[in-house]
Amino acid sequence: MKIRCLLIDDEPPALAVLRAHIAAVPMLEVVGQCHNAIAALEVLQKQTVDLIFLDIKMPQLLGTDFVKTLRNPPRIIFTTAYREYALDGYDLDVVDYLLKPISLERFLRAVQKVYRPENPVTPALPPVPRVQTASERFLYFRVDRKMVKVMVDDILYIESLKDYVRVFTPTKQIISKQTITSLEEMLPDGHFLRIHRSFIVALNRIDSYSPTHIDIAGKELPIGRHFKHEVERALLRTA
User: Fold this and answer.
1) Is a pLDDT exceeding 70 seen at residue 133?
2) Architecture of domain 3-115
């Protein structure tokens, strides 16, 4: 028996990302998608739904308020581009929240919580599919109204611009609204290194380094004083 999913988000690119991730998990199926919470109520009256992927900030009715209107809600995974809204979900006993742009790895971690025995949506489920290797992984970044795909292995380094990040690849730069800390959590362990409060670098892209700077693709990036010891340890391990 598959887990029947309802997708609720007012942005078509975000729905497309969720559909792509769900397609990678054989035990999930999409039974409906809506652009607002009002339309979702009609779907819930007609369809059996086990799991809702629900955007928080939507027109007419916030996702958090929508959940409060449901007497017997299915399992809920919040999706949001705004970290400050995500904390509201824990008061509503949701499975998890996903911060946009949603990587496949983070999506799978959330879905695994639905598979746990204490959440018996369906019996005897097979394992979640293999997580991609670093060279196969990709992330989607919100750029204006689009979600732009970037292969993780193409990332040279990332720069913080307060509430935005600038992602550098050999062929382009992308500016997206999210914090460097939230993006750091999405990157694969052992492949990237935070060297400064404003910079994350790809370890395999480092051309040279000194006690105070790292050189990547002709750019000299500073090593922050508070990051120096961790940078030294990481570079010694890769030497």
Assistant:
1) no
2) 3-Layer(aba) Sandwich (3.40)
